[in-house]
């Protein structure tokens, strides 16, 4: 497993070019934490200018199409993301699963398209509140992992860290309601078991991130939890001040 925590910001449908100054501030601050791998997924429109300006952090997309090109109005392919400077893409975010009816099979195909295009991929999974209250959280998430991850054949050449799974309980996203650390630990262990079942030893390099209302106050406890390899951060990644506080919770500032 990669030693560096992976802290990824997801700007969702937020940010015009005026926000590039904020992204540059995040980039400058991230350079002071060499032990933390930091990445940001701005909207498509900002990927190229941000990737060109970023020195210390990776730039990614928030979604991609399964096809490399073709008659898919409004969609963006994984090779197009790579072409404008992205090095990774988030797939299967619960907002896409809900708003666009994305199935596990589609998420898996997108993840495989991303791998084919040379991108890293973050595959999102997570249960709804109804599923948790019904005692089905682990079963739901385990099934999502089984069916959404790229197949073992698709990752034959996979470098450690190329695939991450983000556990994001749907009820914790953007709500200010964060999962209990003990529930996060239990779910990450369940996800790790599914990753091992899918990939065997090769799966050791797959990081599991937590996402859902991570902020400056709760980041340290979540990031220190057993099995948590980083965080996927929505709202708190939009401002350098709050995002850098999360980066700081993940690592030590260099003194040089
Ligand atoms: C997300 O959308 O991936 C997310 C975790 O959002 P927030 O941090 O705002 O809950």
From TrEMBL:
Question: Which species is this record about?
Answer: Novosphingobium aquae
The record, for PROSITE patterns, names: TIM_1, TIM_2
Give the main EC class. isomerase
Primary location recorded for the protein, binned into one broad class: cytoplasm
Q: Which UniProt keywords apply?
A: Cytoplasm, Gluconeogenesis, Glycolysis, Isomerase
* Assembly notes: Homodimer.
**Family statement:** Belongs to the triosephosphate isomerase family.
Quote the catalytic activity from the record: D-glyceraldehyde 3-phosphate = dihydroxyacetone phosphate; L-erythrulose 1-phosphate = D-erythrulose 4-phosphate
**What InterPro entries does this protein map onto?**
Aldolase_TIM, TIM_sf, TrioseP_Isoase_bac/euk, Triosephosphate_isomerase, Triosephosphate_isomerase_AS
Enzyme active site: 93, 168
Task: Please report the name of this protein according to its UniProt entry.
Answer: Triosephosphate isomerase
Q: Where in the cell is it found?
A: Cytoplasm
- The record lists substrate as bound by 10-12, 174, 213, 234-235
EC number(s) on file: 5.3.1.1
Among PANTHER family, the record links this protein to:
TRIOSEPHOSPHATE ISOMERASE
Q: Which domain of life is it from?
A: Bacteria
Biological function: Involved in the gluconeogenesis. Catalyzes stereospecifically the conversion of dihydroxyacetone phosphate (DHAP) to D-glyceraldehyde-3-phosphate (G3P).
GO molecular function list: triose-phosphate isomerase activity
Q: Pathway it acts in?
A: Carbohydrate metabolism; erythritol degradation; Carbohydrate degradation; glycolysis; D-glyceraldehyde 3-phosphate from glycerone phosphate: step 1/1; Carbohydrate biosynthesis; gluconeogenesis
């Amino acid at each position: 497993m990669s030693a560096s925590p992976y802290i990824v910001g997801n700007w969702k449908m937020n940010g015009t070019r005026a926000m590039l100054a904020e992204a540059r501030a995040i980039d400058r601050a991230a350079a002071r934490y060499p032990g933390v791998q930091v990445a940001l997924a701005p909207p498509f429109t900002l990927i190229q200018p941000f990737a060109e300006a970023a020195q210390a952090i990776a730039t990614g997309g928030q979604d991609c199409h399964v096809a490399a090109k073709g008659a898919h109005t409004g969609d963006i392919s994984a090779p197009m993301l790579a072409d404008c400077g992205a090095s990774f893409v988030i797939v299967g975010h619960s907002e896409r699963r809900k708003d666009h009816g994305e199935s596990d099979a589609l998420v898996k195909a997108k993840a495989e398209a991303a791998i084919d295009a040379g991108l890293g991929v973050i595959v999102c999974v997570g249960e709804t509140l109804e599923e948790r209250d019904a005692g089905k959280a682990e079963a739901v998430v385990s099934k999502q992992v089984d069916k959404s991850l790229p197949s073992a054949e698709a990752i034959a050449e996979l470098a450690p860290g190329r695939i991450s799974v983000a556990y994001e309980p749907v009820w914790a996203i953007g709500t200010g309601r964060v999962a209990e650390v003990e529930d996060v630990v239990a779910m990450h262990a369940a996800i790790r078991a599914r990753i091992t079942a899918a990939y065997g030893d090769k799966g050791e390099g797959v990081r599991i991130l937590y996402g859902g209302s991570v902020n400056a106050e709760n980041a340290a406890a979540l990031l220190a939890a057993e099995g948590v390899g980083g965080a996927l951060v929505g709202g708190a990644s939009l401002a350098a001040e709050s995002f850098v506080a999360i980066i700081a919770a993940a690592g030590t500032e260099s003194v040089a």
